[in-house]
Amino acid sequence: MNIDFDPYVILGVSPDASFDEIKDAHRRAVRRLHSDTNPNKGAVAQLQDINVAYNLLSEADRRQDYDIQARKKQREFDFVLRVTPSKRSLAPLPEPQVIYLLVEILPDPRALSQAERIQQPSRLNLTLVLDHSNSMNGARLERVKAAAHKIIDQLNEQDIFSVVTFNDYADVVIPATPVQDKAGLKARISMMAASGGTEIFKGLQAGIEQNRQYVAPRLVNHVIMLTDGNTYGDQERCLSLVKQAAAEGIITSAMGLGSDWNDKFLDEIATISGGACAYIKAPSDVVKFLNDHVRSLVNVFVERLQLSVAPDADVRLETAFKLSPNSQPLSVDTAEIPLGNLQVNRITSLLLQFEIPANLRLGFRSIARLIARGDILANQYPPFQALSDFSIGVSTDIDTHETPPALLDALGKLTLYRLQERAQEAFENGDFKEATRRLENLATRFLEHGQAELAEQALAEAHQVAATSALSSEGRKSLKFQTRFLLSSGADVPNANGTA
Amino acid sequence: MKICSNCAHENREGYLYCEECGQALNAEGVSAIRPTKHFEVASDEFSAHATWGTARFDKDATIILRISDAADPIMFQPRGQTIIGRADNTNSQKPDLDLTPYGALEKGVSRIHSAIFRNDDTLTVVDKGSANGTFLNGQRLIPNQPRVLRDGDEIRLGKLIAHIFFKSTQP
C-alpha cells in the first residue's frame, strides 16, 4: 500500500522502535484522540492516519517492506516545527484558562545555502485571473497590464503561464503553456480592454481550469485573482471551487484594488486555500504587489503546507492567526489548516489560542498534538511531516518565567487587529457611539505601539463616525490591512543561518 | 480571572492583553489565587474617600496631587485651565503648576506638559504635545484629546508619577 506520510513521524516513535513501543504509542493516541471522547475535528483526522500507520508498522513483513522502500526515497531536505508556549506551567484554577502557542515552521538552512549557490528558482505553474470590468478602465487596467508584462519578463522557459480575464464572461487570453514566446504573450495582454460587470466565479473557474492542466506536485501551482469590484450571488460557488482546487494542489491568492471590493470574501478565498489576500490602495502599487507576490513564489521551498492541530479531549482550539508571511485570520473549523507555502528564506509563523478547562489535576499533561505537512519541492520524494506533541506541567508553584518576547509582541499586535475588528463590528451593527469609542481607544493603542500614522487614521475615522455615522470603505480597509501588515513585518525573522 | 486595570473588563486567566481595550495585563503570577493589593490610606486628608472613583468635582472642591517620593501633597483649587510643566529661564510662558522641585527635569517633564481643565462639575486632563507623554492610569493620552479625571486616578508625566484626589469642602 502507498501512503504519503512517514508512519514513524505520525505515530511519534523512532524508526527503530520496538513492536511494544509502537503498540504503546498507538494505544495512547487512541485514548487521547478517539471521537468517542474527543470532539475536536483535528483529533479525528490525526487518528485516521495513526491507525493507518499502526496497521502498517504492526505487521513485521509490511514494516520491513516499508523500511526498504523508504530508504530508496531520499529525503534531502526537511523542515522543523517549533512550538513556544505563553506559559511554562499551568496553575490548577477553579476557572478555565487560556494558553497561547507560537508555532513556527522553519525551512532547512541547507536549502537556503543551496538556493544561493545554484540560483535555481522553483518552477511555477502560474495563472493570472484579471478583472477587466468597466470600473478597471484607465489607470487601473494600464497598471495591471504593466504588472503582467513584468511578470512575463521574469518567468523562465520551464514555467507554465496562463491568463484569464473576466467581466460578465471569462476569456482565456493565454492558455496554459510553457513560457517561450514572451513577446507574443505580452502582445495578447496589451489587447485587454475594459467593459462589462464583475462576475468572479466565471473568471476563477476558467483560471483554475487552465492551471489544472499542468498541476503537478513538484510545481508551485498558483492562481492570482485581481479584482476591483463586488461579485453578487456567486460567492458560495467561488469558495467551493477554490476549496476543490486546493485539494488538487492549487493555491489561490486574491488581491483587491481600490475600495469597492468585498474584503471578507477575498479573505475567505485566501484562507481556505492557504493563499494570500492583499489590499492594493492605488493603481500605482499594482506592479509592486503582483511582482513581490510572484517573487515570493519563486522562493517556495514547501508547497501545500498544512497544520493539523489535535487538542486533547478537554482542550479547545479557539482561534488561529497566521502572523507571517501575509498575516491573516485562519479558520479553526477544519481538520487541517491550510498555510500555503513555506519560503526558503522565511519562517512561517502562527499563533494558536487554546482554552484549558478548570480544576486541572497536578502533574504533567498533554495539551495538543501538532503535525505540519507539506511537499518539499527540492526533494525527490516531496511529502514531509513534522510532529510536535505539546505537554505542560500543572503545579501550584507560581510560573516565574517571563512570557517570550516574540510571543508578547505578536500578541500585542494581534490585539490591535482584534480591537480594529470589534470597532468595525460595532459599526456594522449600527452602534456608532460604540464604534467611535472603540476607534478612539484603538488610536491610543496605536500610539503606544509607536504607530503615530495609524493612530491618526483611527482617530480620523472615529471623528467621521461620530459626525456622520459613516465609515469610509477605503479607511476601513486601510486600517484593517495596515494592522495586519504590522503583524507580518514584526514577525519577520533573520534567515536560517542566523545572520540578518 | 484577570481584571483589566484600565477598563475593569474581566478577562479569562492566561490573557496577556485585555480583549476589551488592549491594555497589557501584567503577568504578576496568577491573579486569581493572589489577594488584590489595596491602596493604603495613610492620613486623614483622604477622609473624603466615599467619593473614590467619582468624576464629580464639586464647586469649591480642592485637588490634592500626591507626587510619588514627595513628602507633602500639592493642593490647589483649579480655575479654567491649569498648565502643568516645568519653569525654565529660557521660556517666557511659565506653567501654572511648576514641577521643578519634584525632579521634573530628570523625569522628562516638558516645559508645557499637560493641562487640567475645570468644567462645570468635572475635570479633564489634556496632553499639550509633551515630548515624553502624559499617561492616565497607564494609558498614553493622544495630544490635545481631553480625558475625564476621576478621584484616585494616576497621572504620569514622562517618568513623574502623581495621584490625584478630590477634596470636597462639603461634609
Can you give a write-up of this model?
The complex is a heterodimer of chains A (500) and B (171). Chain A is of the alpha/beta class and 500 residues long. Chain A has three domains: 7-112 and 301-394, Immunoglobulin-like (Sandwich), CATH 2.60.40; 124-298, von Willebrand factor, type A domain (Rossmann fold, 3-Layer(aba) Sandwich); 405-490, no CATH class. Chain A has 15 helices and 16 strands. Chain A has a six-stranded mixed β-sheet, sandwiched between helices. Chain A has a five-stranded antiparallel β-sheet with strand order 1-3-14-11-12. Chain A has a five-stranded mixed β-sheet with strand order 2-16-15-10-13. In chain A, helix 2 (19-33) packs antiparallel against helix 3, helix 8 (200-212) packs parallel to helix 9 and helix 12 runs antiparallel to helix 13 (432-448). Chain A is globular, with a radius of gyration of 24 Å. Mean pLDDT of chain A is 87; it is low at 491-500. Chain B has no helices and 13 strands. A six-stranded antiparallel β-sheet of chain B has the order 4-3-13-12-9-10, with no helix packed on it. A five-stranded mixed β-sheet of chain B has the order 6-5-7-8-11, with no helix packed on it. Chain B has 171 residues and is mostly beta strands. Chain B is 0% helix and 30% strand. At the A-B interface, strand 3, helix 12 and helix 13 of A face strand 10 of B.
How many helical stretches of chain B?
0
Strand order of the largest sheet of chain A: 6-5-4-7-8-9
Strand tally of chain A: 16
| Strand content range of chain A | 25-35%
State the order of secondary-structure elements of chain B, H for helix, E for strand: EEEEEEEEEEEEE
**Number of H/I helices of chain A:** 15
Q: Could you tell me the CATH topology label of the largest domain in chain B.
A: Tumour Suppressor Smad4
Tell me which protein chains meet in the greatest interface and how many residues each side has: A-B, 35 and 22 residues
CATH architecture classification name of the largest domain in chain B: Sandwich
Helix content of chain A: 40-55%
Alpha carbon gyration radius of chain B = 17 Å
Estimate what percentage of residues of chain B fall within beta strands. 25-35%
Rg calc of chain A = 24 Å
Total count of domains of chain B: 2
* Mean of pLDDT of chain B: 80
What is the typical, i.e. mean, pLDDT of chain A?
A: 87
CATH structural class of the largest domain in chain B: Mainly Beta
Largest sheet of chain A: 6 strands, mixed
Structural class, judged by helices and strands of chain A? Answer: alpha/beta
> What characteristic shape of chain A results from the CA principal axes?
globular
